[in-house]
């Protein structure tokens, strides 16, 4: 099956859902916000991949004004690795040059076009993941707690498991 996904197709899906956005054809991307969460949507035809990125979640620079201590940054990066390990879809990323923390969902679409439902569901997933994790990321960066304390606190925030489901 041919892949007919284009950035224009994705923009049409947003139109169909009544969402406002800025289409930047020269950069092959869409800028939008959902529930106050800014997003960048790109479709890379050469790689057949749809990228949904939430930029600038927070800043964790290595040095300079407002930088966390090296120990706190190390704990934070280990916390990010743990968070990524637990995610089923998407990943958090950290740019060592300026400390930007992002969240990104990558959808491989080699053999099939991206459907409207798939696109919209992944936009919502990105927003919900960032909203759910934002406070935890802030806490991991600035609380001064050890990784073990952060992970223990995460369990306490999640609450008891629902028997038989593996979920809180």
Q: Can you characterise this structure?
A:
The chain has 168 residues and is an alpha+beta fold. The protein has one domain (7-158): Yope Regulator, Chain: A (2-Layer Sandwich). Helices cover 39% and strands 25% of the residues. It contains four helices and six strands; from the N terminus they run αββββαββαα. It has helices spanning 7-16, 70-86, 116-142, 147-158; strands spanning 21-24, 29-34, 37-44, 49-59, 91-94, 100-108. Strands 1-2-3-4-6-5 form a six-stranded antiparallel beta sheet. Strand 1 and strand 2 form a beta hairpin. Helix 2 (70-86) runs antiparallel to helix 3 (116-142). It starts with 6 loop residues before the first helix and ends in a 10-residue tail after the last helix.
Short description:
This protein is an alpha+beta fold. Helix content is 39%, strand content 25%.
Principal-axis shape: elongated
Which radius of gyration do the C-alpha atoms yield?
Answer: 18 Å
Strand runs, count: 6
Strand proportion, as a percent range, falls in: 25-35%
- The rounded distance between the terminal residues' Cα atoms is 40 Å
Tally of helical runs: 4
The overall average pLDDT, rounded, is: 88
Largest sheet: 6 strands, antiparallel
Structural class: alpha+beta
Order of helices and strands: HEEEEHEEHH
**Main sheet: which strands, in order across?**
1-2-3-4-6-5
Oligomer: single chain
């Amino acid at each position: 099956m041919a892949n007919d996904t284009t950035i224009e197709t994705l923009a049409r899906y947003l139109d169909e859902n009544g969402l406002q956005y800025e289409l930047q054809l020269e950069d092959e991307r869409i800028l939008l916000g959902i529930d106050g969460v800014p997003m960048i949507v790109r479709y890379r035809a050469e790689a057949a991949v749809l990228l949904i990125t939430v930029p600038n979640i927070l800043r964790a620079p290595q040095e300079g004004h407002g930088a966390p201590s090296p120990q706190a940054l190390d704990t934070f990066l280990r916390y990010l690795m743990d968070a990524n390990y637990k995610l089923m879809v998407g990943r958090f990323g950290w740019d060592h040059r300026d400390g930007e923390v992002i969240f990104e969902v990558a959808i491989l679409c080699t053999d099939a076009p991206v459907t409207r439902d798939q696109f919209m569901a992944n936009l919502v997933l990105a927003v919900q993941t960032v909203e759910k994790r934002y406070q935890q990321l802030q806490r991991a960066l600035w609380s001064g707690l050890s990784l073990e304390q952060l992970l223990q606190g995460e369990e306490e925030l999640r609450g008891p498991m629902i028997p038989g489901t593996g979920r809180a």
